[in-house]
Design a protein that fits this description.
- The protein is built from 18 helices and 14 strands.
- The N terminus is likely disordered.
- With 429 residues, it is of the alpha/beta class.
- Bound molecules: iron/sulfur cluster.
- Iron/sulfur cluster binds next to helix 3.
């Protein structure tokens, strides 16, 4: 059990701890960054995401967001045709025309993201310049930003990172010396509201979020801004925030009872809240979370788990499952390892867990088959073949579509891992 006092001790231990990391490069099995639009468009309610891509990109968006049917969706694909690819048409003119049509039809759009893709990168379409040009054309009406969701050398959560990083340059400057807190990372409203309420109960009034629900509510940032990352994959966003003078707080990510306690306590300490006030506020929800987790621990305790690299949530989730659910973590694969942002979760992983960065999918499949884990967390492309081989799998993308942060969601998070095991037991019974 972690207490507020433990946080400093763990942070110090991590500075001197050296954990061997297996680094691999080879064929990878991951989705691209366009996938993030599925949850980003729900969050920023007056934004529109225009993917500049191919029919493949349009199909991906349709199937990834296929569960939701909107009369007026807030994302679309401007399809680059064969003439464009061959350099026979001026893609910029086409893009301007599509944007004009869109904004005439949808006056509610206040922020337009031009989202780059593999095809737009291959033809070297300069979306940054296009966004600047369109921003000038629609000044005082619509802001136009760009980011890349391309699948070339990236993984699917990097789409959110790129999107949020593009917003940072537009954030206003906070007055010098003003202490404030910023939670960075796209959270479901229910989880975000709970975390904000807890900070409010501690007396921390100035807590902003990135992204805000309305694009016009971009928070101010400056040297007094303390940033709590809510997602572990925000490398570029964190860098952009630091360049604006903010401080990124080192802590565990808010998964499970203990991760959430560390995260809240670190934020509160940075804002000068006394530990006894923090403890008084977090004790009741932490107790509820522990009770909810106990119900699932019976099923998860002692079961082995293997993570393929996919969402970049792997290390904090492995920490949660090992320390709070007593699971046996065999391997934790992550597409990229940001040691600084993950130092606290990494330091808490059991020494027996192999941490691997990058992927050579055939080698990793061999290791997985050899160790025969009770549960394998992987992308959709690997899940079916592994299930056919008798392994029980969990789709990692589900962890992005479900509210899993904070105390009140801790039981649901554990349930996401317990459910496939239960399903397998029922099939075998
Ligand atoms: S961005 Fe690239 S990887 Fe993603 S759907 Fe389009 S072509 Fe495929």
């Amino acid at each position: 059990m972690a207490t507020i006092g433990d946080i400093t001790a763990i942070a110090q231990a991590d500075k001197i701890g050296q954990r061997p990391i297996l680094r691999e490069r080879g064929q990878r099995e991951v989705f691209c960054g366009l996938t993030g639009i599925v949850w980003l468009h729900r969050k920023i309610q007056d934004a529109f995401f225009l993917v500049v891509g191919s029919r493949t990109c349009a199909h991906l968006m349709q199937s990834a967001a296929g569960v939701m049917v909107f009369a007026e969706p807030r994302f679309a694909t401007a399809i680059i045709g064969e003439r464009d690819l061959a350099g026979l048409a001026d893609v910029n003119e086409e893009l301007d025309r599509v944007v004009e049509q869109l904004l005439q039809r949808r006056p509610d759009i206040k922020l337009l993201f031009l989202v780059g893709s593999c095809p737009s990168e291959v033809i070297k379409l300069d979306l940054k310049r296009a966004a600047q040009r369109l921003s000038r054309n629609y000044v005082n009406k619509v802001r136009v930003l760009n980011y890349s969701g391309s699948g070339i050398e990236t993984t699917f959560t990097q789409g959110e990172d790129a999107c949020l990083a593009s917003l940072v340059a537009d954030m206003p400057s906070a007055p010098a010396g003003e202490l404030s807190m910023l939670i960075a990372g796209c959270l479901p409203d229910v989880a975000e509201d709970q975390l904000l309420r807890l900070f409010g109960a501690m007396g921390v009034a100035r807590v902003a979020v990135l992204p805000a629900r309305r694009s016009t509510d971009l928070p101010a940032i400056g040297a007094g801004t303390k940033v709590l990352l809510a997602q572990p994959f925000l490398t570029d966003t964190a860098k952009a925030l630091e360049e604006r003078g903010a401080t990124i707080l080192a802590t565990s990510f808010p998964f499970g009872a203990e991760g959430t306690s560390d995260w809240l306590a670190t934020g509160a300490a940075a804002m000068g809240v006394r530990p006894e006030i923090v403890e008084a506020v977090i004790a009741p929800p932490r107790a509820r979370a522990r009770t909810a987790l106990a119900a699932h621990r019976r099923r998860l305790c002692g079961r082995s788990i293997f993570f393929f690299p996919d969402s970049q949530l792997e290390i904090p989730l492995a920490r949660f499952l090992a320390n709070e659910m007593s699971m046996d973590v065999l391997e934790v694969g992550t597409p990229y390892l940001n040691r600084r942002q993950l130092q606290s979760d990494l330091a808490r992983l059991p020494g027996s867990a192999l941490v691997s960065e990058g992927q050579d999918v055939e080698k990793q499949l061999d290791r997985c088959r050899k160790s025969r884990p009770d549960l394998t967390v992987c992308g959709l492309g690997l899940a079916n073949p592994l299930e056919a081989e008798g392994l029980t799998t969990k789709w990692s993308i589900e962890l992005l579509f479900s509210p899993i942060h904070g105390y009140e969601q801790a039981g649901d998070l554990a349930e996401l891992f317990a459910r496939p095991l239960r399903r397998r037991e029922m099939l075998e019974a």
